[in-house]
């Protein structure tokens, strides 16, 4: 069996295609990174023959020796299902954490997404928070979450509360809320570090007027997290287009919901 037939590759292609079909990732929008289980990827060592080495923006010893399956810079999500070896790549971080080597994919001189710094720093934070369970970072241009960033107060507490009140499942699915950072130029170390700082407290981070970052222990969890938030955002956009709310879930009801499902709401949201 080849790498293209592996479960991790099939799962990656499916989630990328799902986001394309939802209309979230136009042109070359969106990027995904998946920290692979070493034993699973090393089964295909005969195919991991690439030797192109690229220096990292900073020393990341926390990720030394880790393998990542990642989308390429300038690549279109709609084409991943057709040519995964062109649009995706497997890279391995060096043992000193100063560089990575492209072992598979990225044919024709491709390289990882320009947002790779934000992904790697976010992986480091989520590994710390989850005790190593977190393996996926997804960045996508979810339409209604972006739309709401133009009209809602851009604070973590407000954005989170507005979405919690749109659907009963939201508080249960993301009790840690959505971290919100200021608008910044994408692809730079500044936005990467700001995103990672929020990732130390939240499993999702909003980039206003741009998109959302979501994380999880696997691709299903990370995709499902964003999909749930985007569904709530869609409901809120519809409600606002119909003249606004006449009734909603109260703070008291949200507290009861949290107690019933054994989750701890993000501090400061229900005060």
UniProtKB/TrEMBL annotation:
It is found in: Cytoplasm. Binds 1 zinc ion per subunit. GO terms for cellular component: cytosol. The active site is at residue 115. Its EC number is 4.1.2.19. InterPro entries: Aldolase_class_II_sugar_metab (IPR050197), Aldolase_II/adducin_N (IPR001303), Aldolase_II/adducin_N_sf (IPR036409), Rhamnulose-1-P_Aldolase (IPR013447). Gene3D superfamilies: Class II aldolase/adducin N-terminal domain (3.40.225.10). Its main location: cytoplasm. Its cofactor is Zn(2+). Transmembrane segments: none annotated. One of its GO terms (biological process) is pentose catabolic process. Residues 10-237 form the Class II aldolase/adducin N-terminal domain. It catalyses: L-rhamnulose 1-phosphate = (S)-lactaldehyde + dihydroxyacetone phosphate. One of its GO terms (molecular function) is rhamnulose-1-phosphate aldolase activity. Pathway: Carbohydrate degradation; L-rhamnose degradation; glycerone phosphate from L-rhamnose: step 3/3. Keywords: Cytoplasm, Lyase, Metal-binding, Rhamnose metabolism, Zinc. Zn(2+) binds at residues 139, 141, 210. PANTHER family: FUCULOSE PHOSPHATE ALDOLASE, RHAMNULOSE-1-PHOSPHATE ALDOLASE. Belongs to the aldolase class II family. RhaD subfamily. Catalyzes the reversible cleavage of L-rhamnulose-1-phosphate to dihydroxyacetone phosphate (DHAP) and L-lactaldehyde. This is Rhamnulose-1-phosphate aldolase. It comes from Clostridium bovifaecis. The gene is rhaD.
